Amino acid sequence: MINLFSYKIDDDTDLSLIEPRHAEELNALIENNKAHIKEWSAWLKDDRSIENTHAFIKRNLKQFADGEGFAMAIRYRGEMAGQIDFSYFDWLNRKTEIGYFLGESFQGKGLVTKSCRVLIEYAFDELKLNRVEMRCGVENGKSRKIPEKLGFKEEGIIRQTAWLHDHFVDYVIYGLLADEWKNK
Amino acid sequence: MKDLLIWSLERARQQTFSLVEDLQAEQICAQSTAGENHPAWILGHLLLADTYLLSLLKVRELSADFTDLLSKYGPNSKSVSNIEYYGSKDFLVEKLTETNLLRLGALRKMKNLDEPTPDETLVRTQPTIGHHLQTLVFHEGHHCGQIAAWRKRQGISAVKGIFAS
After folding, report:
1. Which of A1, A5, A65 sits opposite B101 (nearest CB)?
2. Which residues of B touch A4 (CB under 8 A)?
3. So where are chain B's domains?
4. pLDDT one digit per residue (tens) for chain B, 165 residues
5. Which residues contact B133 (CB under 8 A, 6 or more apart)?
6. Least CB-CB distance to B98: which of A1, A61, A67?
7. B60 at interface of A, judged by CB pairs closer than 8 A
8. I need a labelling partner for A4 at 20 to 30 A (CA). Which of A61, A171, B36, B106 fits?
9. B102–A64 C-beta distance less than 8 A
10. B7 and chain A in contact, CB less than 8 A
């Protein structure tokens, strides 16, 4: 059974639930990677502060308590490198969506791919969900490689689905079914 | 069973919060008699129980803070009227909000409430995690009763039971 409160992926990488005690660390990660994250994330505003991080963590814990999703820190050699989350759980339709971001200096180490694998296994094996989705900006090549490497199927384009600072962007939707994952 | 436990734990915590919501910061250590359990001690004592539960559920490992919690709020500790000795009401309520959400989330993820309690000292009275959780509902209700009685002795008006509303 996977204990996602604190999960060691390998000697260098682990996942842990984001809690209030991690607020400063998470905030520093976001602040140090603002330009990098902003390129594809609409939630990151220029006037944000640590209060936004505190509010996010509170929402995350409430969501976790209500069984509606949760976010985890990706740690590389003990340092917070990024974040990965189950954005929601749709229990009726037995599906979820995985989202993530990674600090720029931690790219190229396969951290997101490894972390996604753990969450996918957890979704299918522990939670008995049937479908996992990922959405990436059509022109966000780096992000799109993740679901493609993991065997997700490209299912279509959602046109102008997100307002990214000053323009609309199209997203690609990727899907992976439990049977496809098991038969890989 | 799990849903009922979640429901009960959540409401027990709401009841605790409702009993201290209107108290001023300096009131929470007042004692009618020496050694009486006042709200500051009770809130810390519940935090101790949550902290221990989170370690049993493998959410968090026990840290050095636990020793401090144990000495201040453990079953053998004695409550004192010195407000400096305890955390503020806001701090304790915030921590209890956090640990409550963590315990509810952890419980929601649990598959088997019949897993043996990993603590040998609890096995005789609370053989499974389910027994321990049920005990915590009773435990919080017991201490809510203590705060309600404390309020009466302090001349503070009664708080409606949230189970009745």
Report:
1. A65
2. 109
3. 6-86+116-153
4. 889 999 999 999 999 999 999 999 889 999 988 889 999 999 999 999 999 999 988 888 888 788 889 999 998 898 888 888 888 999 999 999 999 999 999 999 888 888 888 888 888 888 999 999 999 999 999 999 999 999 999 999 999 888 765
5. B5, B9, B53, B107, B113
6. A61
7. yes
8. A171
9. yes
10. no
Q: What is the domain partition of chain A in residue ranges?
A: 6-129
- Asked if A17 and B108 come within 8 Å (Cβ–Cβ), the reply is no
Secondary structure class of A40 (helix, strand, coil):
coil
Which residue type occupies B99?
Answer: T
User: Can you read off the two tokens belonging to residue A92?
Assistant: 């009726």
Q: Is B100 touching A (CB cutoff 8 A)? A: yes
ipTM of the complex, rounded to two decimals: 0.75
Beta carbons of B59 and A5 less than 8 Å apart: yes
Is residue A23 a contact partner of residue A88, using CB atoms and an 8 Å limit?
no
For residue B135, give both structure tokens. Answer: 């005990």
* CATH superfamily, domain at A6-129: Gcn5-related N-acetyltransferase (GNAT) (3.40.630.30)
Question: Is the full-model pTM beyond 0.80?
Answer: yes
Q: Give me the residue from A6, A61, A126 closest to B101, CB to CB.
A: A61
CA–CA separation, B77 and B74 (whole Å): 5
